[in-house]
Amino acid sequence: MFKLLSERSFAHLRLLSRFTHNESTLAALKTAANSVPRTYPYFINRTRFQSLPVYVDVKNGKTRRLTIVRRIEGDINAFHRDITNALNLETLAIKNASSQLVFRGDCAQEIRKWLTEKGF
After folding, report:
1. How far is 117 from 111, CA to CA, in rounded Å?
2. Is the pTM of the predicted complex or chain greater than 0.90?
3. Could you list the residue range(s) of the whole structural domain that residue 63 is in?
């Protein structure tokens, strides 16, 4: 059983390496796959192409940038508390109905890096 999981995670990393061009992101993915899984009161589902659901929305004639984290399952308030403490982000909205968090500014790369370090 353990051998199957390790082969599966290696294939998953190989698939992700096609989509990631950044060396540090790939290194973070490898360490996250090899680490012991942790339990959190929340979970971030990846998209069908195995990317993290972190998006940048541009508004007001390209003068306002918002970062949106989608697909949050579980305790969204615990996720909000952890990410704001770790990255010092300014939150605009917590959307419980659609399981989304909206942050001010373009901080998508920081959030993606933090999520991969946590094992999502």
Report:
1. 10
2. no
3. 2-118
